[in-house]
């Protein structure tokens, strides 16, 4: 796979280089120069999830990695199921939360860990990542106790749920966590600063693990094929998929899927009140506001890092602007829609509810809707129990984590302080 930097076309890298460097020059993200169509999508759809995913990833990555190596990496990374559940007539929920940290971030996090373990054998590596809630846990679990790899996670203090936080801050060992006095965007800015700091970058062997890393995006393409494979055959051609969006990595993966042949007619990327993209779609003016806190905190992002990739595909007409919807949902509608879904007998946490809302707002008759459940409701226990007036059972991984002490340290929203700590501790 040949990629180029979307902010500096002269920077071309291989897949391996893109995974190892994360972000390109001028903080540009890497994007494939070419997304070739898959040969026989129908027979791919007949395969099981792991076999099909290996083929899709081999197709995307190309001959940089042998197919049997990719097959092994996929087997290790995707060791939990994807479930498609009928919620209403013509509306299905794609449950992506059956992995070890109960959110879809396990797919990308675990495949990226496989890639880095593969590419950096023996070399000292530090994974530095900002999390708005769920990436941290997925990455921490994927790298926990891996030799020669340290993980540093920054998260906005007090702005993620207790369950989200406990799933990564309780691990210790090679997992180092910092609660930043600021927003997720502030955490992302500190990470970007570290990558621009050549001394820190080389002494620590820095690598990023947030959704800008291309290995996470290609991994996420795979479950969209699984969604279509699980739909009744006669409905496949009319699928409208709705993705709750924050950093726009997940919907970017869906669109990459569409470009290489995934039968998906329409895509919705629905945000909470951090609605930079929905406003951009109306007037083509990029005007991020200050980040607002919401019930769907993993989507509290006002400068989505993956948008340039999505926009590239739209501007290139690889996916039509006419088939791409991006609207926003406010807090009171999020609560209302959680209650509405609950009346059908299904329990959705706030992010999932936003995807459902976006689907209902844009779904035309004749189409079949699939909305993504990006996290297990128990991960948002406080808000789900309060809004739906129910009591949730805690799945075992969560109950275990909740019982352990938080090992994170507080830190000011100041890159120089982070720099000193990192160099002292890991340099
Ligand atoms: C990360 C996350 C999202 C947003 O995904 P993006 O790829 O950042 O758009 C949505 N829901 C949950 C539960 C998440 O953890």
TrEMBL record:
<dbReference type="InterPro" id="IPR000634">
    <property type="entry name" value="Ser/Thr_deHydtase_PyrdxlP-BS"/>
</dbReference>
<dbReference type="InterPro" id="IPR036052">
    <property type="entry name" value="TrpB-like_PALP_sf"/>
</dbReference>
<keyword id="KW-0791">Threonine biosynthesis</keyword>
<feature type="domain" description="Tryptophan synthase beta chain-like PALP">
    <location>
        <begin position="90"/>
        <end position="365"/>
    </location>
</feature>
<dbReference type="InterPro" id="IPR029144">
    <property type="entry name" value="Thr_synth_N"/>
</dbReference>
<comment type="pathway">
    <text>Amino-acid biosynthesis; L-threonine biosynthesis; L-threonine from L-aspartate: step 5/5.</text>
</comment>
<dbReference type="GO" id="GO:0009088">
    <property type="term" value="P:threonine biosynthetic process"/>
</dbReference>
<dbReference type="GO" id="GO:0004795">
    <property type="term" value="F:threonine synthase activity"/>
</dbReference>
<dbReference type="InterPro" id="IPR001926">
    <property type="entry name" value="TrpB-like_PALP"/>
</dbReference>
<keyword id="KW-0456">Lyase</keyword>
<protein>
    <recommendedName>
        <fullName>Threonine synthase</fullName>
        <ecNumber>4.2.3.1</ecNumber>
    </recommendedName>
</protein>
<feature type="domain" description="Threonine synthase N-terminal">
    <location>
        <begin position="8"/>
        <end position="78"/>
    </location>
</feature>
<comment type="similarity">
    <text>Belongs to the threonine synthase family.</text>
</comment>
<keyword id="KW-0028">Amino-acid biosynthesis</keyword>
<dbReference type="InterPro" id="IPR004450">
    <property type="entry name" value="Thr_synthase-like"/>
</dbReference>
<dbReference type="InterPro" id="IPR051166">
    <property type="entry name" value="Threonine_Synthase"/>
</dbReference>
<dbReference type="GO" id="GO:0030170">
    <property type="term" value="F:pyridoxal phosphate binding"/>
</dbReference>
<keyword id="KW-0663">Pyridoxal phosphate</keyword>
<dbReference type="InterPro" id="IPR037158">
    <property type="entry name" value="Thr_synth_N_sf"/>
</dbReference>
<dbReference type="Pfam" id="PF14821">
    <property type="entry name" value="Thr_synth_N"/>
</dbReference>
<dbReference type="Pfam" id="PF00291">
    <property type="entry name" value="PALP"/>
</dbReference>
<feature type="modified residue" description="N6-(pyridoxal phosphate)lysine">
    <location>
        <position position="105"/>
    </location>
</feature>
């Amino acid at each position: 796979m040949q990629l180029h930097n979307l902010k500096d076309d002269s920077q071309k890298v291989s897949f391996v280089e893109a995974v190892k460097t994360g972000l390109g020059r001028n903080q540009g993200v890497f994007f494939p120069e070419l997304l070739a169509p898959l040969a026989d999508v129908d027979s791919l759809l007949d395969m099981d999830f792991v076999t099909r995913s290996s083929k899709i990833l081999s197709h995307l990555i190309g001959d940089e990695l042998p197919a049997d190596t990719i097959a092994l990496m996929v087997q290790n990374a995707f060791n939990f199921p994807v479930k498609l559940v009928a919620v209403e007539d013509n509306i299905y929920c794609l449950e992506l939360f059956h992995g070890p940290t109960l959110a879809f971030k396990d797919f990308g996090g675990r495949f990226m860990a496989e890639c880095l373990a593969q590419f950096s054998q023996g070399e000292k590596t530090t994974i530095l990542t900002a999390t708005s809630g769920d990436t941290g846990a997925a990455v921490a679990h994927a790298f926990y106790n891996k030799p020669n790899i340290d993980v540093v996670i920054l998260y906005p203090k007090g702005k993620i749920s207790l369950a989200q936080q406990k799933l990564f801050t309780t691990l210790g060992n090679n997992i180092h966590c910092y609660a930043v006095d600021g927003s997720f965007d502030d955490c992302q800015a500190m990470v970007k600063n570290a990558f621009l700091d050549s001394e820190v970058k080389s002494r620590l062997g820095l690598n990023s693990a947030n959704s800008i890393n291309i290995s996470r995006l290609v991994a996420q393409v795979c479950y969209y094929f699984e969604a279509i494979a699980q739909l009744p055959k006669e409905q496949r051609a009319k699928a409208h998929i709705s993705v709750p969006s924050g950093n726009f990595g997940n919907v970017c993966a869906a669109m990459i899927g569409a470009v290489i042949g995934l039968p998906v007619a329409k895509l919705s990327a629905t945000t909470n009140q951090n609605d930079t993209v929905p406003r951009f779609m109306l007037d083509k003016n990029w005007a991020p506001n200050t980040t607002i806190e919401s019930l769907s905190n993993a989507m509290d992002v006002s400068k989505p890092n993956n948008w340039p990739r999505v926009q590239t595909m739209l501007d290139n007409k690889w996916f039509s602007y006419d088939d791409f919807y991006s609207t926003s949902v406010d807090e009171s509608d999020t609560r209302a829609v959680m209650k509405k879904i609950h009346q059908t007998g299904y329990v959705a946490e706030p992010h999932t509810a936003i995807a459902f809302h976006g689907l209902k707002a844009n779904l035309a008759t004749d189409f079949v809707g699939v909305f993504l459940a990006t996290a297990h409701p128990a991960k948002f226990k406080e808000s789900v129990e309060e809004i739906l007036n129910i009591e949730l059972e805690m799945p075992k991984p969560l109950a275990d984590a909740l019982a352990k002490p938080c090992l994170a340290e507080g830190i000011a929203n100041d890159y120089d302080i982070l720099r000193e700590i990192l160099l002292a501790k890991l340099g």
